[in-house]
Amino acid sequence: MNQKFLIPIVVLIIVVLIIIWVGFLKAKKNKQLPQMYPPVVEEKTPITPAPIPLTTSTIKVTTPTFPTEIPSATITKKYRLLFKESFLYIDLQYPLLYVYDPQQGIIKYLNLEDETYKEIAKIPNILSINLSSDKNKMVLKTTEGFSILDLKSDKLYKLPSVLIDKIITDTDLIVYINDNKTTSYLAYFKDNKFTKIRDIGLLNPEFALTQNGLLIYEKNTPILLLSLKPPYVLSLFLQAEEVAGILPNKNKDLILVSYKQNSIWQNDIMDLKKTKRYSFPWVTIKDKCTFEDVLVCAVVKNFDLSLNENWNLGETAYDEKIVIYDPKSKQLKEINLENNFDFVKPKLTPLGIIAWNRIDGKLYLLKLD
Description:
- The chain is mainly β.
- It is built from two helices and 30 strands.
């Protein structure tokens, strides 16, 4: 080959090789490793007591036409069906019976004396409703969160429900704020704002309001007492291995306590000095009792703590009897139940015992013969 052509060919080959090598080094330098995400550090932002923005809306209250007849009841031997319709039971302050009609999405009360009713508000998708002790507010839990229905102004206040875990109903609402991570405290809700009481630091606490303060417990903890006066001291109220429930009476000076000590379940009425007034030989689920001046309980068959927990998740717990106890007269009365009932919050009235059966969603009247 002519030397004149060989030299340029060699130079060209060398240049091409250099270009390929430089490209390879550049590609290696720019090659990225799989992206590694650093752990997310969640910054804890302190929530200071301050007014919160509330979404308000006016609820249209339907004025009833009086008199309006309540549907006729079905009569049986010892009890009778109060209404043919199924309702979600809210509360009973005789003669007013507060219910929620899930099919129509209407909150109403039924007057059991003059057999009339009044529609209070139409709100769909309600999961639970609690009436405050002053009977002026309802705390609603819907699929969208918590709201407060003011029965005086007919307004609905939607609360920022992301952090709200429980609301303790009283004249002034007490709200438990919990994000299941770092935030766990109690606050007052009044005049459309939160005012922090104190941190709690429990995973899943339950509450019972008394004259001396707020009783706080979990199923496997002692019972604590929180003073609701500054500086909000938290102290031990009662040592217990397990706690099924605490129910104060209407005056909040007596409590029904279901708890385990020395591996034995106990169910006692005691005062706030922990003096036992009466001990029952049975234990039942807290929401199967009401305690006004008189204690009324639906006693379940074969109680244990798992039954208590599963019932709160929707399972059925059959009742064997209704027990009525008057702490003043110390009189005790029992009504054996022949049919399968799963009663919730039975209450003594001039008509007899009125109770909501969770199995069929209907209200029953039990006569005290």
